[in-house]
Amino acid sequence: MDLEKRQNIKIVGDNTSAGGLFNNVSVVGNGIFNSSVDCVYIKVAGDCTINGDLKTASGVVAGDINIKGSLSADIFKVAGNMTVDYNTSIKNLITHGNATINGNISSEKIDANGYFTIEGNCNSEVFKSKSIVMKLNGLLNADDIDIQIYGRSAVREIGGEKIMIRGGSESIFKRLKLIKSMLSPHDMCKGNLTTDVIEGDEIYLEYTTAKAVRGKNVTIGQGCNIELIEYVDNFNQHNDSVVRESKKIIL
Prior knowledge:
Blueprint: E1 7-11, E2 14-17, E3 20-27, E4 30-33, E5 37-44, E6 47-50, E7 54-61, E8 64-67, E9 71-78, E10 81-84, E11 88-95, E12 98-101, E13 105-118, E14 122-149, E15 152-167, H1 170-175, H2 177-182, H3 185-189, E16 192-205, E17 208-220, E18 225-237, E19 242-248
């Protein structure tokens, strides 16, 4: 990356840029880039629209960003609102606001909080979530999956080595009064995750509704409703959960 040919740009108030190569990009007001942006760092505290792709080493969004193309970054933090119209590739994604990706996402580590919506597939080595609402319309595939449920969430299919889905901690809502006011008392700590299929090696589930669960060692905690479980070694079930059928698979 040739930094000598890159300049900083700061947008304050309403302003438009042609896009291009930049060092640091700062948007405090209402900024529109009419083509793709390639930068070292981007910070959005206002409203930003990129009519193309965004490529950056790192970025922070405290306001609103709308990327009409794809997003590529090493590390990206979202505390406000982000929408990406196409595919996303981020080594480390951290969200605490509202993130919507209208395509696929690939990553090494995702830490999703707040509202997290993926229209396509999600591939990551590590996936952690404490989202209020999480919607993945494709496959969630990760080596290590740790999901804490706080509201109504849905994932079409889940696959990984170690999968843990559990109810969220009530203490978080005692500290975050704004989030608490957005959910009904029933949803706050006993939400539900709905999925078609879960496949993994080590699986632990709470408050999960699934058509099929397949794994080596499967533990069904409280609040689950599972149609079929297929396991290789061990299967345990909480008496508060419903499992309509379970099968031991002989390899």
